[in-house]
Amino acid sequence: MKHTFKAAWIFSISAVLVLSACSGSEPTAESTAKETQTQNTEPADPYGRYEEPMTINIGMQVDPTDKDLPSGDTPLDNQYTRQIEEALNIKVEHAFTASAANMRQKISLAIASNDLPDALVVNAVELRQMVAAGQLADLTQVYERYASPEIKDIIEKTDGAALKSVTFDGKMYAIPGVQADADGIHIMWIRQDWLDKLGLEPPRTMEELENVARAFVEQDPDGNGISDTIGISGPQSGDGKMYANFLESKNNLFGFDAIFSAYGAYPGYWLDDGNGNPVYGSTLPETKEALSGLRDLYAKGLIDPEMAVREASDEPIINGKSGMFFAPWWMGYGPLTNAVKNNPKANWQAYALPLDADEAFRPHTATPSTEFVVVRKDYEHPEIPMKMLNNLFKNEMENTFDPSKGGPGFYPLRVVFAPSDEIEFTNKAIKEVLAGTKTKEDYAGDRSYKLLSSDLENITKIKQEPYDDWSIDTWTPDADWGAWTRAYSIMVGGNPLVETEMDRVNSMIYEQTPLMESRWVNLKKMEDEMFLKIVMGVAPIESFDQFVEDWKRQGGEQITREVAEALQQ
Amino acid sequence: MIRDRTWGSRLTDTVILVILIVITLTCILPIWYTFSLSLSSNSAAAAGQVWLWPVGFNFNAYMQILKDTQFFGSFWISIQRVMLGAALNFIVVLLMAYPLSRSSQQFKARGVLMWILIFCMLFNGGLIPLYLTVKGLGLLNSIWALVLVGGAQTLVFNVILTVNFFRNLPKELDEAALVDGAGPWYSLFNIYLPLAVPVLATVTLFSIVYHWNEFLYGLIFMTREQYYPLQTYIQQLVVSVDPATMSEDQYRRLSELSNRTLDAAKIFIAMLPIMVVYPFLQRYFIHGITLGSVKE
Amino acid sequence: MRIKGFDKHYYLMLLPGYLWLIVFSIVPMFGIVIAFQYFNPGKGVFHSDWAGLEHFRYMFVLKDTRQVFFNTLLIAVLKIIAHLIIPLIFALMLNELRQIVLKRWIQTIVYLPHFLSWVILGGIMLDLFSYNGPVNQLGALLGFSPTLFFAKAELFPWLVVGSDVWKEFGFNTIIYLAALTGINPALYEASGMDGASRWRSLWHITLPGIRTTAVLLTVLSLGNVLNAGFDQIFNLYNPLVYSTGDIIDTWVYRTGLLNLQYELATAVGVLKSLIGFILISISYYLAYRLINYRIF
């Protein structure tokens, strides 16, 4: 997506603070030109300038709609390339350029013709293919010696997920970018007006959740005298999923992702068994426990009795019959616009709840590393790309670059080392502008957030005081439904993301392995059907154990071995 | 043609007339709409207020294109490609069609050669070997990659069309030429060429249209945007959707970000050359196609 | 009659054309061997290990490929049927029109979309059918809630067929019109004298008069059964409609070039070419048998 690619350029304020605190020792500016390519393992200067001018040919993604460069500048000659040449004495050349949609094709042709540029940014599938074809340089030493402490810190903070994704046969073949994505966090949306009416608080634990759901079902929160309300919405028939999975790790609407994680269960994800070996989350006892909890809720009528049968799960939400559901931040774009059109008092609010036994919110996340910097096998200076990344990170922290003179996408070999934060950034910006601590003009430079200026302009049209209260009665959506849809999503849906401390749980792998291509569809189908039957009480909870056995026998075991292999490569 | 002029017949005439006009309008209105959109203000376009007349009339989009050097660069590449491609196509088609239109008695190898053509038209090794070939010839980023690769793909069709046209010409022509003692070159250029104007105009129009419209090879063989022909440039700006788009919401957000008036203006300009050339060649191609393809 | 010395001139005329085809069409066919290999780009086409028919076997196991073949067939067959019938109806209506100037104008306008690229028309379509585009605005007037047309898998094949018919029906009428003008006007006059109604003369004179053409076009379109239109779908589709809109050609493009499964993509491509070749041969034979027509 063009705009997330661009929007991910800046680091959340907290990350910058944490990271700059980490970087204790300031590097000295001595030259490292002579110590290239030796087998020594001593740390080298991550920022050292070359004495001789160096050249690197890269394949680069250029967004053709991006006209931010000042006149005279080009993707080959702009503030970023000039800074690189000045600071590192490296001249960047383009082997090829392409837009986001065409980049894959160009890389594929480069791989197929065995003619790679010196370095480029690739995805996980391409990385594997290149490793298999023996086209890449081993970057283990380069990373050890040249990676700046900040970058090492971010990469290592992913519990090794980022490093594992680039390690094959014990060698590191790429530098992984790291980012989290708001679309992968599933939060609880709840009718605050129902809670208030019934004198309840947002449920923090599974126990409270059950109580709230019971109250929603039994105490006639919509006040029509008929017992027709739903406690918790469930997935719809057809494409509905009870939980996101490692292949579709984002945007699962009306599933039970947050409930599973409250049990410490992560079905559909590949987890570490504690010894570094992959194990499929759906086969673990925690999942059984969560299923039994859900089964219990369903049996008590607290989960929509028509779940998985309903054509459209958003219907009871729109009609004001459902009190709670789980989904990502962008529900204004989802059912809430129509829900509020139907009932202007339907006060949907979002929380990072329920918490698990340790009182923590531990959501599963989308993959941390989707982009990797790789270097051609025989390139004479494999450390150059690493140094360019160090340089990028340092200067983004120090705000050296002026984004109004060309967005960060123009930095050669750029990968993101931070949460992708369009939602969080916009959320905070809107709050600052509403509070009067900043003005719209202060954000004039943040042009890579393409919708930010219109967001800031529109917010007062649709949001009234008090500005620290996000209840539906403080909004005036009638003034501009389009703007409200977006702003409500960003503010109400974004608040839990901005305000909650989260321990994110990653899947060890986010791509298919070869065997999965033929077997996975059937295994997944068996899993989905079995779990649905368990929750809906059609099959006994004990059939979970049978499922685990069947799953292993029908290819799951082999696939697990394949995943382990893929991770060890 | 004499027909009864009854009331019912006139009613039928009117109904047919109305239907035809409505259908014709559906062909022209989308183009007109695009033109109106290109002259409207951004906000009116984004809000979907534009119908048949520009709302918030302005030339901003066109002014922006005037400053877009990439656009004109690509436009120029397309023009060059069309001229080279159409000229080459004209010459080669003419040269190939004449011998291949001889009967099997006159030219024994004809049958085999024709099947080789069909084989070329139907089989291909896919884009990757094509890429390797073009790369091996050192033609990446060269306009000749576009002219030659694209031209080879349409050559066969154009040759077949022209061959059929030649074969429909009266046999006496040949015999007369032979009696006069004319060689093949003489009869090709002095007898067949003047008669072949409609079909050659048709294949030239096809070639022009093909080279102007083709976008994929630009995407494959050009490693930098500055070498893209116009359609490739527009394709990646206006229509291409990132394969990472996974939800309807993302798709909608993506389209909200596009600049509709500017896109419309680019689309409109890219249509212009075809709309300018087309009326001149139109009277030929109807003749050319019907004679080339249908033989009663 | 055959003149001995002419052959070498014929070969000389054919030389540039066949050279062109050898370099840009036949040489790249070596890539077909990828379908029978475990292709390792590091080792290249000539040194990769052989896989035999493994990829073909795998292809038949994959659910994906079956879906893609089905989508292709569905879209292509719908298009073929629509392209045979709708232009016929249009040509018949146009034939009834007596205002010659208007007829010219209609013809000129309805042929035009054929000459515009799918990049251009894709851009226009996506805008027309966008969330707040004219179609949805019109729908809103009639009380429909806005729909993201091109994000709906169940609508996509119909939009593809519909827009293709819209683009091509005008052009496809050319051949029917030619056949219609070939009907002897004396026949109409005679039936007019007899007092036959228009419907009767349509049934007894017009339709029989163009029967051969209709049969021919049907037979010829057989070769297109696996061609659902790469350019069109490539410029209109997005991941949300892959389930119904992905056709062999787009799938091969993505699988080979975006997902790096070179061997599988090539295997599917080879199979498609093979089927295409067989179909063309059949239609060549049928056309000759049924109506004594030689395609070339």
UniProtKB/TrEMBL annotation, chain A:
One Pfam entry name: SBP_bac_1
Region of interest: Disordered: 27-51
Leader peptide range in chain numbering: 1-21
Biased composition range(s): Polar residues: 27-42
Keywords: Cell membrane, Lipoprotein, Membrane, Palmitate, Signal
CDD domains: PBP2_AlgQ_like_1
Superkingdom of the organism of origin: Bacteria
Matching SUPFAM superfamilies: Periplasmic binding protein-like II
Protein name as it appears in the record: Aldouronate transport system substrate-binding protein
Provenance organism: Saccharibacillus kuerlensis
Upper lineage: Bacteria, Bacillati, Bacillota, Bacilli, Bacillales
Automatic annotation (TrEMBL), chain B:
Gene that encodes the chain: ytcP
Protein name: ABC transporter permease protein YtcP
Alphabetized UniProt keyword annotations: Cell membrane, Membrane, Transmembrane, Transmembrane helix, Transport
Chain ranges of the ABC transmembrane type-1 domain: 75-281
Stretches that traverse the bilayer: 12-33, 82-100, 112-131, 143-166, 187-212, 264-281
Transmembrane recorded as keyword: yes
Predominant localisation class: membrane
Record-linked CDD domains: TM_PBP2
Name of a matching Pfam family: BPD_transp_1
Similarity section: Belongs to the binding-protein-dependent transport system permease family.
InterPro entries membership: MetI-like (IPR000515), MetI-like_sf (IPR035906)
From TrEMBL, chain C:
Source taxon at top rank: Bacteria
Keywords (A to Z) from UniProt: Cell membrane, Membrane, Transmembrane, Transmembrane helix, Transport
Main location: membrane
Record localization: Cell membrane
Membrane topology listed for this record: Multi-pass membrane protein
Domain ABC transmembrane type-1: 69-283
Family annotation (Pfam families): BPD_transp_1
Transmembrane feature ranges: 12-39, 68-93, 105-126, 169-188, 264-287
Gene3D superfamilies noted in UniProt: MetI-like
Similarity comment: Belongs to the binding-protein-dependent transport system permease family.
UniProt name for this protein: Sugar ABC transporter permease
Organism name: Saccharibacillus kuerlensis
